[in-house]
Amino acid sequence: MAVIAVKLVALLAAVAAVQADRDPILPFHESARANANRIFNAIHSAGRQWGSSLNHNGFGFIPVVVPAGTSFYHGGYAEEPPRGIEWLAFEVEHAEFFARPPGGRHGHRPPCPGEGQLHLLADQAETDGGGCDEEGRVRGYLQTYHTTRDAQLLYLDGTSAGKTLIGTLDSQDEVLRQDDSRQGGIIEDEMKRAKALCDMVTEWGWDGIMRMEAGFEVIYCNFSSGLHLDSSLRTLLVEDRMKGDANLIPLWLRAAAERYDGIGGDRVRMDFSSMVSGFFFPINISSTDPERPDLVRLGAAKREHLQDIKAYLQSVFVEPRKFVVNWQAVVDMIVARFDKRLAAMASTSVSPDLFISELEGITLTYYEAPGVPGDITLAREEDDRNRTAEAIDRCAAHYLRPASPRQQEWTLSDALIHTSLTTVTQRICSDLFLMRAIFLGAVPDAAPDAYLIKRGVKSASMKQAVDESRAIARNLVQELAWTTRKKPQVCSEEEILLTAMWPFGDSVDHFNPGCVPFEEATARRRSYWQPLEQRPYVE
Ligand SMILES: *[C@@H]1O[C@H](CO)[C@@H](O)[C@H](O)[C@H]1NC(C)=O
Ligand SMILES: *[C@@H]1O[C@H](CO)[C@@H](O)[C@H](O)[C@H]1NC(C)=O
Ligand SMILES: *[C@@H]1O[C@H](CO)[C@@H](O)[C@H](O)[C@H]1NC(C)=O
Q1: pTM strictly above 0.85
Q2: From which residue to which does the signal peptide run (predicted)?
């Protein structure tokens, strides 16, 4: 399947290249390896407000399906549903901001729509007039819709609805649109952008484009198709509200922040098997701003390379949806296993004892202990095994396993994503076993294959091993750049956010769950469940 896809793509690209008299660039496993951390993080952040805000310059193009029955909201100045292209918000508060009558008090007639005024934030500005009452007062309306069938959208990752000049629009303006005729400001350009994107996706039979700013939204290309209007409610004038609209923005931001970890409600299904990313290609993505070297952007690549990416993604997107592997689920399992652990190991506030427990905990999972004389259940020993190398392989492959049963069906996107994700897990796992080797080297009497790192060794060499390993952990955490690390944590690295979970937990953990230090989270902590009939899990 992947082979066929590659051939098809190569064919299509070759056609384009013949016209252009050059070899087009194609997705490349070497690029997937070189950009492994960025691809990993893009998959982790897809459809999530937190990471997509931090890594705001999106490189990803992902076909998504919004199921029938999903609610959307539209704020504007007309009671009737818009004709043609308009904006839909995933959150009520986002649309409500645009459902306010535009600024200006009673008596001050604000300009009516259709007089050329675009809303401050451009989105959801009405373009089809109406909404003015007899005195010329503009009224706002909050419209609620639901999808009457599955809607097929093109999701542009990052903060792709951010009307900025720092790279958030590159996937649209530099790849999909390639329109140099930008007129007026970046906001005035928004309607033209929407029109151009809709022209492209409707040709594939799709319904719109999904993007993100403070909140996720859809540029919906034809309101007469696939949407049912549930209500259209006229909103109060500002002076008629008890409290004006001073708190609209914090309420909107809080609603957007509820989606930091995902849109929720099963509202969007992402086809990662059809994902195309600029990171798959051998292009120059260096920042064009010397003051922000961290700010990679698609717009830094050569125009002809961006044309090749566009030709490639068109060839992928005309094919039916695939949904072979949900790579975000794979990534989530990796982050959940390693994130807090690596953070603890990188932190100087964590004691050497806890550091060693963390390291042993995560490495020994994958390490087969050598036999010792007298073992009863000893299989035949093969002495020439490299147990460490085996353990690293086991560790790196562990969380990629769910993707393997359908490997025969993998698309090229699946194969490229797999390359990136294994690059990341191999890096994590080999660093962990490197740290273990440093500790084993620091214990003088350790056998080469010592199963247990000796505890409580206070020697200078042990201290040095902790320092060296901590530096490796710190460097690893920095390079992985998981956006979860930027989130303020409820508890410190040496604590657990604890509720009573049988067979553990004191009454306080049930009635007032909170942060509990590791050393207090012991088997003795179980008063809530008294009296105990049996004590199967305790010393
Ligand atoms: C919008 O959808 C309606 C209903 O399916 C259809 O009749 C109309 O032609 C569509 N408009 C455009 C511009 O495609
Ligand atoms: C990549 O782009 C940056 C910024 O435009 C430029 O300074 C650099 O020379 C380019 N590198 C290559 C290898 O073309
Ligand atoms: C075993 O594998 C590890 C990791 O690849 C390597 O660092 C080490 O040198 C190998 N040991 C032997 C004895 O070959």
Answers
A1: yes
A2: 1-20
